[in-house]
Amino acid sequence: MSNTLKKVLSLVLALTMVLALAACGSTAAPATTSTATAAPAAEATAEPAAEPAVEADTRLAADVFPELFDPDTYNEDSSRIYEEVLGEFYELYQESKQYTEADDLAMRFALMAQAEAKLLGSAIMIPLQSRGGNYAISRVAPRTVNSTLWGSDNERYHQAVIVKGDFLTLDEVNEIRAQWGELQGTGTFEAWVKEYLTSNGHELNDEYNMASSSDPNTWDTLATSMEADTEKII
Fold first, then answer.
1. Model confidence over 140-149: pLDDT tens digits?
2. Crossing angle between the packed helical segments 170-183 and 189-199, to the nearest 10 degrees
3. pLDDT band at 29 (very low <50, low <70, confident <90, very high)
4. How confident is the model over 16-32, as a mean pLDDT?
5. Which of 9, 148, 158, 202 has the most crowded Cβ, counting Cβ within 10 A?
6. Among the three residues 124, 142, 164, which one is the final residue of a domain in this structure?
7. Are 138 and 167 in contact (CB under 8 A)?
8. Are strands 204-205 and 162-163 parallel, antiparallel or unpaired?
């Protein structure tokens, strides 16, 4: 092959390579220079929009699931379920409370232990508070236990209005709360609550049982600030 022909072939190959590189550059350019494709990456780093606030659902279960609850027989159905699930616990607990003398404390504690086992075995737990307020399942009339901020005397229970036997119903709780709005500050609310509950067939209790997480260590009011001591002293 002559030198001239070799030079022509080399020139053709060089031109082919240049054209190929130019074609590659033109197809790759949009991926590197276009701002449209870069925008999603920038958007991905932005903070997510705040979720809309969810309003609290204050409806009663009977209103949400009318096919499961009959308002006319709710109390009877509730009592029947309680008896089936916690009847043995309640019987043992009531029996244990009959042993009050010092010589009978062993029997009292034994029966209470059995009652506790029945309670735990039923897998029942009711929180004390929800949504910042107490549950309505209680024997203590609402608005009758007030806080008094005075030194360690931060909680008083002597004025609590408590019923024996059945829990307060939802209608009774709502009526008492409504009357609190009318009678607060008049000095007549406590008397009204007692009259209202006794007229509804409730018997008032003169005892208040309070759960404690630990035993008290001292009765010296000036030597303690522990809740386990101060609540018992009060």
1. 898 887 655 5
2. 150
3. very low
4. 52
5. 202
6. 124
7. yes
8. antiparallel
